[in-house]
Design goal:
heterodimer; A: mainly alpha; MetI-like fold; 13 helices; 75% helix; flat; B: alpha+beta; D-Maltodextrin-Binding Protein, domain 2; Dipeptide-binding Protein, domain 1; Dipeptide-binding Protein, domain 3; 3 domains; 4-stranded mixed sheet; 21 strands; globular
Amino acid sequence: MLRFLLRRTLYGLVVLWVVATLTFVLLRVLPGGPFDSERRLPPEVMVNIESKYHLNEPLPKQYSRYLTALLKADLGPSFKFIDRDVKDIIADTFPVSALLGVLALSFALAVSLPLGLLAATFRNRWIDRACVFLATLGISLPNFVLGALLIWIFSLKLGWLQAARWGQPSSAVLPMITLGAMPCAQLTYLLRSSLLETLNEDFIRTARAKGLREPVVLFKHAVRNSLIPVLTLLGPLFAIVVAGSFVVEFVFAIPGMGRFFITAVTDRDYPLIMGVTVVYTAILVCANLMVDILYSVVDPRMRAH
Amino acid sequence: MVALIRSAPISRTIVFFSLLFVCACKSSSPTANERVFRVNLGTEPPSLDWSLATDHVSFNVIANLMVGLTEFDKNLKPAPVIAKSWEIRDGGRQILFHLRDDVAWSDGKKVRAQDFEYSWKRLLNPKTASEYAYSLFDIVNAEEFHQGKITDESAVGVTATDDTTLEVRLKHPTSYFVAITTFEITYPQRQDVIEKFGTKWTEPENIVTNGPFLLTSWKHENEIRLKANPNFFLGTPAIENVEMFMVNEMTTALAMYEQGQVDFIDNHSIPALEKPRLAKAPGFKRVPQLRGEYYGFAVDRKPFNDPRVRKAFAMAIDRSVLPTLLRGGQLPASSWIPPGMLAHNPKIGLLYNPPEARRLLREAGYPDGKGFPSVTLIYNTLEDHKIVAEAVQGMWKRNLGVLVRLENQEWKVFLKRLLNDPPPIFRSGWGADYPDPDNFIKLFSSYSPQNYSRWRNSRYDRLLEQAARELNEQKRVRLYNEAQRLLCEEDVPIVPLFTTAESTVLNPRYSGLEYNSMGRLVLRDVRLKTATGAN
């Protein structure tokens, strides 16, 4: 197990280096620079700015400077948010995104597990159809539409919740549902199909033939075996929701990290783009590692491997 | 997973997440009886350091924290604030600002002329790398100091001769220089504070200011809180507290206004489709802005190297249609200097005249558009720009028989294209940094970095130079009229389209909010209307 963990950590570091390098190269290829604006700057002013941020150095030197700083966990200063380090920006915004992501994923799990279970248990009956309908709705409704719809209903029409901003516990409800809807729908579908497949397995038939009660068959034998594909999906889902969503953060004015995946690119804020990309990759690598560990908890056969 | 869920009691999980949530939120809304005025900034201000800020969001916060030598009055003329008066000497080459001696910083120290000298030299220092450093290049040795050609700060022509006198020596008479002192970049700074806290000096616990409000908290990406400065020398503002939110999404911000969570919204919070509805709402106001939009031509290449073609294209545009399409209170403009600014002249410029446009195009060798080469109009991706481009494309097709292709590009890609290879026709705009025509008209001088059309006219350059040095206002206006005729009637490297307006809605319970034509939100005179609620 330890060897396995070490090997995966090493792979993770290689992935991080590849992503960091690719991001660095792609940003330099992208037309337009961080200080291009409608008010074009005189050359003498531009020279001083480029010198301040080392943009006048040759690309290999910039790259080595960037990698060296990265090894020291120094992500450099933001070009857009002057006088703020990318590290500080991520430290301010990531906890908000992470909390919202955890809440959204908890919501998704809390809703999808019973829905998937009900749908599979009552296959082809109205309960199944209702669950599938809800899941289809969750997948097909874009989150900016769902977010706007929730604001319209619960804030403007009913006046129960505030339209946006992060401050009070109640302000997390609408973004949590909006962000959690898609993972919830995906997990419901997956659990339903996985459970249906498991319920047709020989060992389930054997369990029933031995006279075990249906809840025992379902919860002790079927559900546990159906969780493997759900866990596989949970890794990337966790990384996606925890790193923040541009749309949800934008619609609900949440001070999270997700917005920077878009705004930092349009601003050509190189250090911020590279910072959020590296953090996102690190989360993804860790989440996948956690899933691998959880596999062995759910399925003892994996431990043997 | 199942095992994990089983092993953790649900109640413990709920408590854990509740604590996590409370920690992450770390804020509480003020109680209703606090006198709080709430506005939406739209986005996080990139910097509250007025030597480094470049955008209007930052300046909207700074303008409520600080005051400078002057501010512009209702007629857009510089009016005294910290400078009680100024003397122009040596034929305009020297300006002496006489400062009030009763202005205090928020830590109680007096605002002195030395604070201005430090701030201006910091702006010019190459290490500061300020984007606006060039604004002070009219000062003796300022440009050389910024370029690193001289390193002796004392050679730069700004000196505090004593605590209340600031002497500015200029390279040449500069008629607009006092107007520059209305700009936030010239506000004073405290050397001791900046040296002590370095890049963190603008954080609430460190910053020292002299304006109507004090910065009490800055939760990045979320909100800024201000409180009235009890020692502000022009009187404590009526509103005790201000909250500035950073809600980017327009429909959300509008929902917050309609829910009573925000007291003032502007264009950043009003979707275009909602403007006609809100125009009937109490508290709605349209504020014309010193910002112009234009289409430019690449004059160094065919077919727009022929002034007749450029004039034909200009005269085929019916500008009066554009405000109806955009619904934002825009004002059609045939000349470049915007209304409200010295030397604005609506009589200058080519008006809509399709027969004359067709005649000019025929004369240029393209009767009814026949034989006209394929040209493209490029604009940066934005819904309003698309609406205008499609409308103008229709007018050119209808009036000239020319089909212009349209192309939109992402903002930074578009800027790169303008710089390296300007398209035959392009969209651009300009907002005033300070309310003087020089800031607008010199965009198209031969030496301007903004002159994307690559038009060069030595007569135009000379007129601008003369106007900049001319201290007599009437003579200046005459020179600018002549320059505008060259720009908008004779050579026509650009076609002015319209000047913009800001749609604003103020909660009817309040009055006194000033949203000026420079797009600054001035809150110091805001007050509750009701007698019981008045401060």
